[in-house]
Amino acid sequence: MTIVCEPSPEQATSLAGYLPGSVRPVTDILSVSDALSADPAETVVVLGAGVELSQALDFTSWLRQQRPGVGVILLRTTLDVNDVLAAMRAGVREVLAADDGAALAEACRRFQHQFNVAPATAGPPGPGGNVVTVFSAKGGCGKTTLATNLSVVLARAGQRVCLVDFDLTFGDIAITLGLTPKRSIADLATLGDELDEAKVATLVTPYQPNLDCVLAPVVPGEAERIPVTSTAAMVDVLSGMYDYVLIDTPAQVTEHVLAALDASHQHILLTAPEIPALKNLRVTLDMLDLLSYDRAGRTIVLNRSDAQVGLTEADIERVVRNPIAGHIPSSRDVTVSINRGQPLAAALPDHPVSLAIRQFVAEHVHQAAPAASPAASRRGLRLRRR
Predict the structure, then answer these.
(1) Domain co-membership, 68 together with 106
(2) Mean pLDDT, the chain, as a whole number?
(3) DSSP per residue over 107-152, as a string?
(4) Is the pLDDT of residue 57 over 90?
(5) How far is the CA of 8 from the CAs of 26, 32, 39, in angstroms?
(6) Nearest in space to 226 (alpha carbons), one of 183, 190, 182
(7) Is residue 39 part of a domain?
(8) Which residue, of 79, 111, 143, is where some domain finishes?
(9) Are residue 162 and residue 38 in the same domain, yes or no?
(10) Of 86, 56, 89, which Cα lies nearest the Cα of 74?
(11) Is 122 contained in some domain?
């Protein structure tokens, strides 16, 4: 059921005609709160154009703390950029034109996805604006799968998350999540040199409550038009808009990847129990040392950790000369979830893979505290090497 708050009964009836499933119309914010209390499984609230903006934003800010799994859709007769920005800061999932019934129906269908268990238990909330980069120098290790599932787990734990696809040529976030890209990171080229929250908000594609995405370009050649300075500035702005910014990367060190690593408070390095993947991880660790990245900000995750391939965990740690913080088991269900366009942590929260990722988040991601970034010195080193 979708809760529609609209003081005008005629407008409420009109809105209900666009919405999938059953609709519960109410005329004031207090009634929305009562309806939510009566239905703990509700995930969508539509605040009509007749609701005062200040009242709508105060309610959304309160709801974000009390029911982070509920998505609020705000309707306005005119879409003022300052109002849209204020709504995003308050936690509104989408701001739509009051007469755009098709967009409202699509947004409601997207937010009616139900989690079938309570939110994952995580550690204490991390500091706002944590930037986390997931990297592997060997393709096929499951980097995008880990990034998407980490994002889902954090979002379900009440954190506002933005998942950014920095694989600008072959990015898979959109297809992995079943999204149809209408905007992408390539649109940075049209936003000018000075980025702010209002501009960056136009790049965002909502996925689920508390989880938005910035998708990779879909047209060949667009990646070459995206300046590194723009992607770095975008990440900086996003870190002020979200609790966590998770960056998925390609399996090579590009200037954009280095910009992501520079901006990050934590580097999650993924590997698999295969000699080529372990060799590439060892090279990656040496590179990070050479560029003076803080070792305390690194966390190594072993995917397919239970694979019987003749390597023990002791063998693996001996090769990489670092402890393994996270262990993700093998499962064919991971591939099934990718093909369905739904992360395993959302579809099957009690699956062994989902539980392993939740444990990793609770033990390692929330504890990652922002550290002073030596980015300036690293950039200087790269410039001297050119």
Answers:
(1) yes
(2) 84
(3) HHHHHTPPPSSPPPP-SSPPPTTEEEEEE-SSTTS-HHHHHHHHHH
(4) yes
(5) 10, 15, 23
(6) 190
(7) yes
(8) 111
(9) no
(10) 56
(11) no
Better-scored residue on pLDDT, 287 or 67: 287
137 CB-near residues (< 8 Å, 6+ apart): 251, 252, 253, 280, 281, 283, 284
**pLDDT of 335 higher than 80:** yes
Both 86 and 206 in one domain: the answer is no
CATH of the domain at 159: 3.40.50.300
Residue 298, H or E segment: strand 298-303
Tokens of 95: 């701001």
| CA–CA separation, 65 and 182 (whole Å) | 30
Question: Residue 47 sits in which domain range?
Answer: 2-111
> In the chain, what are the helix, strand and coil shares in percent, each to the nearest 5?
45, 15, 40
- 83 and 164: one domain? no
Task: Count Cβ atoms below 10 Å from residue 124 Cβ, excluding itself.
Answer: 7
- Indicate whether 116 belongs to any domain: no
Instruction: Give 30: exposed, middle or buried? Use CB within 10 Å, 0-12, 13-18, 19+.
Output: exposed
DSSP code string of 175-186: HHHT---SS-GG
- Cβ atoms of residues 291 and 254 within 8 Å: no
Phi-psi region of 309 (alpha: psi -120 to 50; beta: other; left: phi over 0): alpha
DSSP-derived secondary structure letter, 59 = H
Q: Are residues 107 and 196 in the same domain?
A: no
Q: Is 51 domain-assigned?
A: yes
Backbone angles phi, psi at 186, to 5 degrees: -65, -25
Name the nearest CA neighbour of 140 among 170, 112, 109, 104: 170
Radius of gyration of the chain (CA): 22
Q: How far is CA 155 from the centre of its chain?
A: 8
What are the pLDDT digits (tens) for 110-147?
776 533 333 333 333 344 489 999 999 888 888 999 99
Please check whether residue 330 is in contact with residue 307, taking contact to mean a CB–CB distance below 8 angstroms: yes
